[in-house]
Amino acid sequence: MKRLISALARRLALVLAPALCMTGTAWAGDTVLAAATPVVVPDTLAQRLQPCTACHGAEGRASREGYLPRIAGKPAAYLHQQLLNFRDGRRSNATMAELLAHQSDAYLRETAGHFASLDLPHNAPPAAPANPALMARGQTLALQGDAARRIPACVECHGQALAGTLPAVPGLLGLPRDYLIGQLGAWQTGSRRAIAPDCMAQIARRLAPEDASAVAAWLSARPVPPGHRAGPPPPGPAPLPCGSVSVPRP
Amino acid sequence: MRRPVRWLAGVLAGLGALLALLLWLQLRDEAPSNGQNGSPTPGPIAAMPASTAEQLARGAYLARAGNCAACHTARGGAPYAGGRAIDTPFGAVFAGNLTPDAATGLGAWNADDFWRALHHGRSRDGRLLTPAFPYPNFTLVTRDDADALWAWLRTLPPVAQPNRPHALRWPFNTQMAQALWRTLYFRPGSFEPDPALSATVNRGAYLVNGLGHCGACHASRNPLGGSGALDDAGGSALPNQPWIAPSLTDAAAGGVPGRSADELVRLLKTGVSARATVMGPMAEVVAGSTQHLSEPDLHAMVAYLLQLPHAPAPTPPARTQRPPEAMARGEQLYADHCADCHGAQGQGAPGIYPPLAGNPTVTMADARNLVRAITRGGFPPATAGNPRPYGMPGFDLPHADLAALATWLRAAWGHDATPVMPVDVLLVR
Q1: How many beta-carbon contacts under 8 Å exist across A and B?
Q2: From B141, B211, B301, B388, which residue has the greatest number of CB atoms within 10 Å?
Q3: For domain B199-307, which CATH number applies: 1.10.150, 1.10.760, 1.10.1740, 3.30.70?
Q4: Do A110 and B388 touch (CB under 8 A)?
Q5: Cα–Cα distance measured from residue B266 to residue A49, given in angstroms and rounded to the nearest whole number
């Protein structure tokens, strides 16, 4: 009896198999595709680069809270270097590495150019931490540095307005405090690297933990004035050599 | 006293015979290596006729066909200098340095050594290589092709980068384990064209099963890592990755049956086709390998895959109740997050955003690729045919929402696939 049932089942399967194959292989979607009008997709970089804006905020202007940095309006060469650094493992972020793993230098340059070209207003800064000593220390480091410890002032390279300098030094205002602290820490531990000589790694390693906290607190509490864009490179030699500035990337 | 001694001698003799058998099994079919093994003189070029430009070009092409660089290049590292960790269920295997550096690369190897590694899975010093290096596939590569590959590897700039020792767990880190594995799952082979099939299909079989080592991911593997045939309809969950490599002969899982050869060639050449987009590990394959292959070779590979016996159609899933509230939620989520790009009818934008109606990634029995695609999104690889890909943002939805969306997708537009429960999402996330 059992054998009979299994024989019948096998025969039934033989009869049914082609029918199932048809539904399986003739793409159930065929009829849908034939009937429906394809979605019309704008041929723009903003459309292509939706994975970026999913995290970095609409048009790449992430809020000043949280962790993720705003990318809109940063210098194109800086953004391109960072995309290459994430792709090639000099910066460490699993999401960025996965997204960029199989993208070409050329497309990443175009991506960087897109976000660099955006000139969009900034939000007001979040409330500053109520710690005048911390803020004063941050301001001193940013504007004067600490010659005794060979710490140059931020403004020496990032511009008097801290808006960055062309071609590849980013502005420091309008960024979340946690992001700024995170970057200084990543330079200290070597999980963020740039092309040698890695000037920021050297500077970050001269900072005490409270220095990093202070300068991040002060920078993140500054308002960003209108027309805040990276300017020309400062006159005179840089306080220390930077591979990411002097070595143009292909 | 006498009996235990005899008994012991018997056991020892038996063990000795077993070891001898095991040793013979490792070494059978190996041609003598011209006595050059272990010789410190790097005399490979002298041992080979001068390489012609044609041979070097073919070697470079074959390296693409085998995607050697994908494993033998660390992220951001020098090409072919090794160092990348390959995750396996038995621990990490670190790919070796293939550049001709004398101290750390293949500088001291000769063409026979290289052939033995490809064909027999044994290193120059006689060690058995781990099957993470797909020698069970590469054993099919012809001597002529192996020599071309070798001649081309010799032209790479030497890079001094010592190999990292594998991080395999005991006992998988022993040569005995390798010997046992080979005894169970490996025979040195050679590619024999099937006279019943066309030259094109035979060429495809050679590329797919040899250097292409498609089955390394797309065939099923048993718990010891033994690989099945490409048409065994298994597919394979990739170790320590949230992806499943579907069976290529199972239409319901996203295999080749029912697709047009032209569409498949386009997918392999550019990473996108009218109905599909490669993501995850397959994006790496297209970026590093198939986009560089010639159209005739891609057509040959596709022709071979298309003529493999199709997997039997799966038994239709037992009717499972789909929670009505999850269906309603899923439909709403689709309208809110997905329809702009994939279309209200799941029709997509061919070549840009894949249609979801009838898409096997949506409906295949194992929903992990679907969940992965929704939560992480991503870019198809940038290729010559699709240099500026459109990406998909990840949607980091709560488990219940993700399950509802997947359940609705698997029932929309005539689909009839099993619902996805929040716990399924939790397991693959």
Answers
A1: 144
A2: B301
A3: 1.10.760
A4: yes
A5: 23
Widest CA span in chain A: 97
pLDDT digits (tens, 9 = 90+) for B236-246: 788 778 899 99
* Residue ranges covered by each domain of chain B: 24-185, 199-307, 325-428
Quick check: B313 and A54 CB within 8 A?
Answer: no
- Does the predicted interface ipTM exceed a cut of 0.85? yes
Q: Which amino acid does the sequence have at B21?
A: L
- In this structure, of A132-146, B30-44, B255-269, B278-292, the range with the lowest mean pLDDT score is B30-44
Query: Phi/psi of residue B53, each to 5°?
Result: -60, -35
* Nearest chain A alpha carbon to B374: A51
**Which member of B287, B349, B393 has the closest CB to residue A54?**
B393
Mean pLDDT value across chain A: 87
Query: Which structural domains are found in chain A, ordered by start?
Result: 45-119+129-246 (1.10.760.10)
Which of B76, B287, B312 lies closest to A88 in CB terms? B76
The token pair that represents A75 in the structure block: 């210098």
- CATH class, range B325-428: mainly alpha
Cβ-defined contact of B258 to A33 (cutoff 8 Å): no
pTM equals 0.89
Chain B hits for A103, Cβ within 8 Å:
379, 381-382, 389
Q: What confidence score (pLDDT) does residue A66 get? A: 87
Judge whether A177 and A67 are in contact, CB under 8 Å. Answer: no
Per-residue pLDDT for B36 more than 70?
no
Phi, psi of A60 (to 5 degrees): 80, 15
- Span of B4-8, B126-130, B147-151 with lowest mean pLDDT: B4-8
Residues of A with CB below 8 A from B392's CB? Answer: 50-51
User: A34: exposed, middle or buried (C-beta count within 10 Å: 0-12, 13-18, 19+)?
Assistant: exposed
Supply the pLDDT for residue B19: 81
Domains B199-307 and B325-428 share a fold: yes
Partners of A13 on chain B (C-beta within 8 Å) are: 312
* pLDDT for residue A249 is more than 50: no
Min distance B366 CA to chain A CA atoms (Å): 16
Q: How far, in Å, CA of A117 to CA of A211, rounded?
A: 33
Measure the CA–CA gap between B163 and B97, rounded to whole angstroms.
6
